[in-house]
Amino acid sequence: MVQQQINLRLPKNLEKSAEKYAEMYGFKNIQELIAEALREKIFFRNIYDEKFTEEEIKLIDKLLIKSIKNKKVVSEKQLLKALK
């Protein structure tokens, strides 16, 4: 696996908190913590459904914007019922 080095600037208080967290939870350093946090965010908590095409996503966005603008937003329960 090819690795790419990046530079990351953190506010001092976030850096200190990250150092403390890394030490507390057994990470070697902040770099290892950040890499793990990115893996978790991208691969394990990814709520974006990659099955949608770019065009479908744009249509969904337009529908949501119009629904909110026209105050025609329903609850998740009502939406799921309608889709069944």
Short description:
The chain has 84 residues and is mainly α.
Q: Secondary-structure element sequence?
A: HHHH
Number of helices: 4
Distance between the termini: 44 Å
Helix content: 55-70%
Structural class: mainly alpha
What's the Cα radius of gyration?
20 Å
The main β sheet shows up as:
none
By DSSP, the count of extended strands is 0
Give the averaged pLDDT, no decimals.
Answer: 83
Number of domains: 2
Low-confidence spans: none
Which overall shape is indicated by the principal axes computed on the Cα atoms?
elongated
Describe, in plain words, how this protein is organized in 3D:
This protein is mostly helical and 84 residues long. The protein folds into two domains: 12-44; 54-83, no CATH class. The chain has four helices and no strands. It has helices at residues 12-24, 30-44, 54-69, 76-83. The longest helix has 16 residues, at 54-69. The protein is elongated, with a radius of gyration of 20 Å.
